[in-house]
UniProtKB/TrEMBL annotation:
The keyword Ion transport does not apply. One of its GO terms (molecular function) is zinc ion binding. This is Enoyl reductase (ER) domain-containing protein. InterPro entries: ADH-like_C (IPR013149), ADH-like_N (IPR013154), ADH_Zn_CS (IPR002328), ER (IPR020843), GroES-like_sf (IPR011032), NAD(P)-bd_dom_sf (IPR036291), Zn_alcohol_dh (IPR050129). Residues 14-348 form the Enoyl reductase (ER) domain. Coiled coil: none annotated. Keywords: Metal-binding, Oxidoreductase, Zinc. It holds the Pfam family ADH_N. PROSITE patterns: ADH_ZINC. The keyword Ribonucleoprotein does not apply.
Amino acid sequence: MKEKMMAAVLYAPGDLRYEEVEIPKIGPNDVLLKVKAAGNCGSDLQRIMVEGTHVFPCIPGHEFSGEIAKIGEKATSFKVGDRVTAYPLIPCMRCEWCLQGQYNLCEDYDYLGSRSHGAFAEYVKIPVVNLVRLPKEVDFDEGAMTDPACVALHGIKRAGGIKPGQSVVILGTGPIGMLACQWVKAMGAGKVVAVDIVEDKLKIARELGVDVCINAEKEDVVEKVMEETKGKGADVVMETAGSTATQRQSLLIARKRAKVILIGRSYSDVLLPDEVFTRIFRGELEVYGAVNSNFSPLDNEWKISVQFMASGVIKAKPLISHRVKLKDIAETFKSMYEGKMIYNKIIFSP
């Protein structure tokens, strides 16, 4: 095997370079994965262009799939050539949350793409315990979207799932939002409403089975949701956009004793007017935070997600807006940051 590979390396916020680097050396419990597809997460734009990674230089990218190229001497549960994706959070296995099987809440975790080198590269090193085998029905592009599918599923499960017939509003139709729409439908939701400001995304949401789509630039979201729920508000609200506007709306469109699930990060202070804040206690709302997803033996949302993708219940491919060669990644993120392109899920390939 060759000793060098091409990768996108972040040296500072906004300084992403496509260059030749050493192929990672694996340990006895690791595998070396040949990356076939790597997707952009919503957090990648902020991480690459504004905040930076936790260490420099660092190869970003944590949503990916590929084929095992090499295995460590103790990584015997997989073999060279296996098609896999991987959970990017590497738990410490020592803190109270890890011992409870809640790996997403680990207090001393490592993370591919921000604390360790990630998958915007030809190869990535991964602990074998983090691997998830891809069914034959799931291709590499779809496999690279397992992470957002799991994030959407985890958010819904945090609030106890969906009861048949419940009304659900999803604020934001990025990949997580669109996948959430499909999950709640699969769980038996009644009326599902999707809200966004990009008409092309709402069109895809309609094609995926969403009952009502609201363009927030053309309609009053609160009025429209109340109209669609006969003045009561939604039983379940999921905020996935990370916008201060949608975070306020999430509380205003919820019916009494509704469940409000917050997944999106706003990257700025969220100030709630009294009218909005009082809805929490006057309506006895249940507000849930949800972060990442879980991969423990007790609650493996990754295996569930790939099974539902394999069955066709969860469709990932319609969410892909662009396919880009890895060598063009720096220019692509610059265009995204400058607002020069409308995108949903971008799949990068070496």
